[in-house]
Each structure stands twice: as C-alpha cells, then as structure tokens.
Amino acid sequence: MAALEDEFTLSSGVLSAGPDGLLGVEQSNKTDQFLVTDRGRTVVLYKVSDQKPLGSWSVKQGQLITCSAVCNFQTGEYVVVHDNKVLRIWNNEDVNLDKVFKATLSAEVHKIHSVRGTEPVLLFKEGAVRGLEALLAEPQQEIEAVLSDGEVIRWTKLFMVFRHPVLIFITEKHGNYFVYVHMVNSHTLSKYTLLRGQEEKSVIQSFTASVDRKFISVMSLSSDGCVYETLIPVYPTDPEENQRVVSSLLLRAVVSGSAPSGVALTVLDRDHVAVLGSPLSASKECLSVWNIKFQTLQTSKELPQGTSGQLWYYGENLLMLHGQSLTVIPYKCEVSSLAGALGKLKHSHDPGIQVMPPFVNWEASQGDGLGSQHAEQPRRILRRRKIEVSSQPAVPPSKQLLTTIMKDSEKHIEMELRKFLAVKTPDFHAIVGDLVTGLLGRCQVEPSFCPRNCLVQLIQTHVLSYSLCPGLMEMAVKKTDVQLLQLCLQRFPDIPESVTCACLKIFLSIGDDSLHQAEIDMESVFDYGDSVQGDNVAAPVDVLQNGFSPEGDTCLSCCQEVPAKPQDAAAATPTCPVTPQRAALLNAILHSGYSEAFLLPHLKDIPAQHITILDWICLLLDANFTVVVMIPEAKRLLISLYKFVKSQISVYSELNKIEVSFRELQKLNQEKNNRGLYSIEVLELF
User: Fold this and answer.
1) CA-to-CA distance for 575 and 580, rounded, in angstroms?
2) Which end of the chain has the smaller Cβ count within 10 Å, N or C?
3) Phi and psi (nearest 5°) for 187?
4) How many helices (H) and strands (E) does the chain have?
5) Whole-number Cα distances in Å, 310 to 71, 332, 334, 477, 650
6) Model's pTM, two decimal places?
7) Pairing state between β 2-4 and 317-322
8) How crowded is residue 257: how many other Cβ atoms within 10 Å of its Cβ?
9) In b/e form, how buried is each residue of 116-142, taking b as 16+ CB within 10 angstroms?
C-alpha cells in the first residue's frame, strides 16, 4: 500500500523559479541534502531534515546558469555550467563562484549527470558524451555532432548497470522520437526509433525510465492522459544498426490531456509511478501514485496552489514547486499484495512447484513463548523447498513464453513477448511461427481471447510468411481486421491470390466510419493532399501524349464524350474515388505479388461498382468484359482507354516507318566495311 505523508515547505521565495519552474533538483553527497538550481544565477544547498538552506552560490550579474548543478560523489565537489560553455567547480568552503575553478569548453552543454559510483558525465547539445575528467584534461577538445539537423534532446538520465554508467537520452525531430543508449565506459552508442502505436496522434509530455539487468523501461505520459511503456535492451544485438522499438499502453487516463501547467511522470519503484497533473474528474492539480502492476490508483494529494509541472524523486521524498514554494512530500510504500489476496497470482507459478507461504520471523517468535524446536522445523522445510526448486533444469525463454501464451492474460503475454523480441535468441526465427500458432490456437478455444497487439508485434519482425501461419490471415478476414490484413500484405511474400481477393473485397466494402477508427498505415498515401472524394480539383490542362493529342480530329465521333450538364460539372471533375484510408489499403493490395492465371478467376466475384478503380485493368476487363460494357459507370473509363490506345497506335505506326529506314541504313553500313582510317559520308533519307 502506498501513502503520501504530510507535505512541508523547504523554501519559500528564496529561489527565482520563473514561469518554467526550476532548472533542476539534484541529490548531494548526503541523502537528506539537495542542490536546487533556479533559472537565473543561483544554486542553493538544502537540508531536508532541518528544512533550511546550508549554502547559496551565485554567478555574477550578466551571467546565466544553463545546466543544473550536480555533486561529484567521488570528490564531494559541486559542478555547474553557465552561459552554455563555462564549467565551474567548487566546494562548501567557497563563497564566490567567480573565484572558483573555471574551464571554458568548445561546445554547448545540455546537461550534467552524476550518480554514485562514477564521475560526472556531460551530455552536449549535439549528442556527444564526455566524462568530467577527460574534459578537465583538455577543455578545448573537439566535440563531435551525433544528432542530425533539427534533432532536439527532450529528456535524459544516467543509470548504473553492473557498475557501469549508461546514459540514455531521447530526442525529437518533426514529431518523431529517437532513443539513444550510450555506454559511457566503452563509448558504444545505440540508436532506436520509437514507433508509437495508438498514441501516435498525441504529444508526449513527460518521460521517465527505470533499468534492470537486461532492459531499460522507458515510460512516457502523452497528451491523451495515458502512460505508455517501451522496453529497450541494455546490450543491443547490433549497436551500429538503427533499430525500432514499439510502445504499449501501460496506464489509461491517469491525467487530463489539457493540464494548464503541464504534467510530470516519475518512477518510484518496480510497481509504482507518481503522476503530477489534473485528474479527469477535477480541475485542480494532484499528485497521485499508481500501481502499474495492478492498474490501480493507490493514493493522491490535491495541490490547490498549482505546480510548474516538474517532479523529482530521491530516496523517500518527492519534491515539486507548489505555488511559489519548494515543497517536499515524503512517500512510503509497502510491497503490493493485492493480487495474492485476490488469488490472481496462480498463473505465474509452475503447477509443479508449491507456492511459498509468507516469510515468518521465527527468531522474534521465541519471545512469545515458542520454543527452538518450533523455530527450527520451518527453516528446514524452507531450505528443502529451495533446493528442490533450484535443482530443476532451466526452461528456455521460448518455452516459457509458449507456456505463458496458453494460460496468462493478454497484458502479461504482451509484456513477456516484448521482452522476448527485444533480445533475439538463436532459435528466434523458428520460435516466431510457433508463437503465432499458439496464439491462434488459443483464439479458437477462447473466442474472447484476442491478442491483437501481440500479433502485430510478431508480424513486424519480418520473419513470418503466409505458409508459416495461414490461419492468421483467415482469422483477420473473419474479424474484418483491416490493420492486420494490411500488415500481412506488406510483410508476407507468398499470399495466395484467393486470399488477396478476399482482402480486396473487405477493403472495398467496409464502411468509411470503420476505416476512420482503424489504425491504418498511411505511408503509401502521404502525398494524398486534397484529392479526397468530393473535393474540388482544378481542371486538367491539355497535354500531348507521346507527341499526339487524344482529342485530335482523327478520333471517331462516337468517342466524343457527351457534354456534362451544368449541375454535373462537379461530378465530371477528376477526383480520387476513395478516401485516404481506403487508398492506403488498396495500395497494399496492388503492391502484393500475384500470378495472372490464378488471380483472374477470383476477380470475377468482385461487384461491378468496384471494378473501375484499380491498376489490374487488363485482368479486370478480361474477367468482367460483358459487365463493363453494360454499366454506365464504366462509360467514361472505356472512352478514355479508347482514345489513349488510338493515340498509341499512331505513335507505333510512325515508329514502324522509321524502323524501315534504319534497317536500310544498317544494310549500307554492312556493305561498306572498308572505309580506311577516316571517312565522311552523307546519307539522304527520302
């Protein structure tokens, strides 16, 4: 159970926060001391237990602190950057920052990071990373540019993984987000493109992250009020390759999307996050704690004076600006036991292993009159159970995932699948097909089970094919899941023509309202512009086709199109006959492979009103010739085709005449083989 204790004010009116809040709050070398940097000229050291400042330092008039001050845990000194390039180092005995150590760097610094166990690390605005000692040895060293033009750093954090510093920073460019993982000691940089799912149309307002031995869990709070999670491997399989990672929904509707002062998100522990913002049911800002494991709100505290949308968490203290005051809210959290109390943890244990009872402090029980015999017996039982469990052979991750698919919830399966896909095992290509088969098999047994997000992730691995999992597209056709069908058409190279036509029928018949609700890849129609059905388009200019005009005097009178009535002028304007969403789906059909002989019989089943919008014109006309001649909708198409073919025949006729002349020239050249070293010939064509 999580609890927020009574808040208290750490400072009031001492700092110049400004409209954007503070520049940063960082922990000092003592657990209850914090360095607070405002957006002006001042750094203040506070002691939480005494609720008072211990020291204050400022740069001189005209200078501006641009990076929050940090503590060098190896030396106990403080480090700050002002005016983007000027590095200052001082300690508690110093009074005036103008007289402390100074080093001018060659590039602008974005942020200084410092954690226990390593030296401070500086991240430059262009994405380069340097340790403090390396910069002090050569301050004017050249700093390389890692980021592309227009790419801006939005969030960054330093972790310690196996006693090695790992810096992660997230950038944005034209609405696209990229995650960089920099191994500081080995100077290894990995880049990931963050593929956003259902939150694609929203704006990311806050980031936070946690790390374990294998994965970095990046969480983002979007303008739709939801929290999303992305798993990134600490050690990538191919650091040189720009890899892609997909985010998934973690918490739904935790804050209002229209918060006046912004929102903030921070990780508290493995199961809890703190969210700062306005709830959906209230207008005032609140600090709330959510259990991400059980999807429940644990506690909340109203902040009537408003905040700056900034939140820091160190130890057991949450710090924020409440009104004009720096406020501390102590936080306590016990280990969650909701799932155990409700019996929801049965699926997470192997059936052959007995669930362990809660831990009992038997030493403390002796004071209550329990003898040593009663205390020793449970120890032996626990030790024996531990040995039995540890002696069992390790189960491969692929088999563990298959077992999870057969009995766990969709959310848990999705999380385990993302972990499996993040680290490609040697049997990766072989196991992906088994995973799809397992998911589809459970779908048949349990109609309510629909692991759509899992199937999307597996399709995007580019490992699957139709022959490997034919039931996948059959299920998508049955459920009219146009997104899955589009992905399969884009990824699978061996789709039968009958299935392609089944997809075509669905794409042509599904309603526009359903298409707007579906998550369709619109990349193939990114330049669709305003050519949606019903929009006005400028009249086309007459253009010569291959040197001949299809509207010339040689056209038969029967091919002249009947002038449109005034009220039909808009209908005669050339427009795209489908919406952008439907056009994207049809493009997936048109780009898939097919055989004319096998495709032709299936095209006969397409309704007549749908056969004039497609690229397979020859096959469609052959398959539906009688119908096309009869329906009024095809008249304009047939007339245009006739004019175009007639102009092409004229071109080919002229080319044939030239071909005869060139043949004669070729004969002449063959007869005159002996021309000497140099000759000039004049050939006349009549």
Assistant:
1) 12
2) C
3) 55, 40
4) 18, 29
5) 20, 20, 25, 47, 73
6) 0.56
7) unpaired
8) 17
9) eebbbbbbbbbbbbbbbeebeeeeeee
How is residue 2 written in tokens? 């999580």
Could you tell me which CATH number the domain at 20-146 has?
Answer: 2.130.10.10
The residue type found at 534 is: G
Per DSSP (E only), the strands in 85-131 are: 86-90, 101-104, 109-113, 121-124, 129-131
3-state class (DSSP) for residue 632: helix
Q: Tens digits of per-residue pLDDT, 571-601? A: 444 455 678 888 888 888 888 877 766 777 7
Alpha carbons within 13 A on the beta-carbon side of 168? 22
Residues 445 and 463 sit within 8 Å (Cβ to Cβ): no
Rounded to 5 degrees, what angle do the CA atoms 267, 270, 274 make?
30
Pairing mode, if any, of strands 101-104 and 86-90? antiparallel
Give the model confidence (pLDDT) of 512-528 as tens digits: 888 887 888 887 775 55
CA distances from 443 to 47, 97, 393, 460 (A): 58, 67, 30, 20
Instruction: Spell out the residues 6+ positions from residue 429 whose beta carbon is closer than 8 angstroms to its own.
Output: 463
Give CA–CA dist 566/429, Å, rounded: 62
As a residue count, the chain comes to: 686
What DSSP character marks residue 351?
Answer: T
How many angstroms separate the CA atoms of 317 and 327, rounded?
10
Task: Tell me the angle at which helices 470-479 and 428-445 cross, rounded to the nearest 10 degrees.
Answer: 40
Q: Token digits for 560?
A: 């002249």
